[in-house]
Amino acid sequence: MSQRFLRNSPIATALYLKYLRAIQPDGPGEFDGILDEDVYSWIVGLFSPIFKRLAPDPFPSFDPDAIRGGLATPLLSEYLFPDTFGCRLDAEDEEFIPRHTDNHGGLVPSRTWLDDGVLDELEQWARFFDPSDIEVYFSNPEHALDRMPTLVKVRLDGVGQPTTCFFKSFGSGITGGPLNRELDVYRNIHTSGLKEDTMVGRLVGVVHENKHDSTLGLLLRYIDHRGTLYDAVQGNPPGQLRHKWAAQIEKAVHELHRIGSVWGDAKPENVLVDRDDNAWITDFEGGYTYGWVDPGVAGTVEGDLQGLQRIIRFIFDGPQGDIERVP
Questions:
Q1: Which of 32, 81, 91, 282 is a plausible cystine mate for 12, CB 3.0–4.6 Å?
Q2: Where would I find the Protein kinase domain in this sequence (predicted)?
Q3: Residue 183: exposed, middle, or buried by beta-carbon count in 10 A (0-12, 13-18, 19+)?
């Protein structure tokens, strides 16, 4: 969409500019009473005939009934490299005109070109898997066509039963701050031989497409969780569980520090509670959340210890003062 394609249409242009304000990525999600959802519905309505005409037939492996019956298994590669089409919205004499412009589209693939040095270092300790060798898992097969998968299955040794992993896609871009930091933490966890009774997220492998030599995401150990620590504490658990969680989180943080890493964004939402009531700390990208870690100490051991102290207080006493739930 661009204002230069709106010709002799001042009313349509004014509406377009309002809609543009409503969908600003860093905005509040509305403008002048117009919600971002309203804009998306309007766009879909305009382009619906074109979408229906261009939409390719789904892969047979996406059939919900076939998935449910064990007759089909979608592959991660089928999700990451879809057909794309270019469309454009014009206006002429106050009439909006949706157009199909090309069969290439402007969708940026979900891949990251890592620096050769980063890739070489990764290959020293991490396993690489091609997306065509990774199966997608849906607990509800009806979601096979409308959601990007996060649960996948991969045969870690190339044979045998597949292991369920959490797929964390990189999105577009190049290596940088949060990604480098996250990989550094996972490397330290792996090379230090951190014991399994330390409840921290772990890297299982890297999804790398050999054809274009591009990296697509991380395979993380799947934590079969029932919610975050924030939700679990809100459920008023017994004191025994509260003590267990506090001890597990404290041990995990201190073990990270022992191997030369820091957690970073310490907060209850970055702690997952699994089905056996174990508390796992996750998310090593860094940053901070207001009320849990002060900006001046974010990304440091001191910041981790501050966040840990506040999390433990939260476990036993619930939310305090201006510490609010922030995703």
A1: 91
A2: 74-327
A3: buried
